[in-house]
Design brief:
Distance between the termini: 19 Å
Helix content: under 10%
Structural class: mainly beta
Radius of gyration: 15 Å
Largest sheet: 4 strands, mixed
Number of strands: 11
Length: 134
């Protein structure tokens, strides 16, 4: 299986490769009070272009989440390269990116509800609100 926001609505969906059967797409279409999120897409320049091995830490309120860009997830699949952070009620987030070469970049008070593209050595190059295309 692979995880990612297939329909670009801010929540994580699941694709399951069934051996000898059609692929299953499990869409996360729950209703309820809206929650905030941010997605981060990294682009390496000095490190590898796909930013594999980069680590992003999101801090919001008294909470913190950390994710890394990986090149594989499970058998014959890979998760979405865009890192997804659920922020609950927080409307802003501080991001810290540790690139594979050890360089650290920090970004304060980024608005929730965006796909943020960060280029190594340059910084935030795009902030897209849904709907955005993949």
């Amino acid at each position: 299986c692979a995880f990612g926001d297939y329909d670009n609505d801010g929540d994580v969906d699941i694709v399951v490769m069934n051996m000898g059967e059609p692929v299953s797409l499990l869409r996360n279409d729950l209703t309820g009070p809206p929650q905030n999120w941010i997605k981060v897409l990294l682009e390496g320049t000095k490190s590898n272009r796909s930013a594999i091995g980069a680590r992003v830490t999101a801090r919001y309120g008294a909470r913190m989440q950390t994710q890394e860009v990986l090149s594989q997830a499970s058998f014959n699949s890979v998760n979405d390269k865009r890192l997804h952070f659920g922020l609950g009620a927080s409307a802003k987030v501080d991001l810290e990116v540790r690139w594979p070469n050890g360089v650290v970049q920090k970004f304060a008070a980024i608005d929730a509800g965006h796909l943020v593209t960060i280029k190594e050595g340059t910084g935030v190059t795009a902030r897209l609100k849904p709907p955005f295309s993949r």
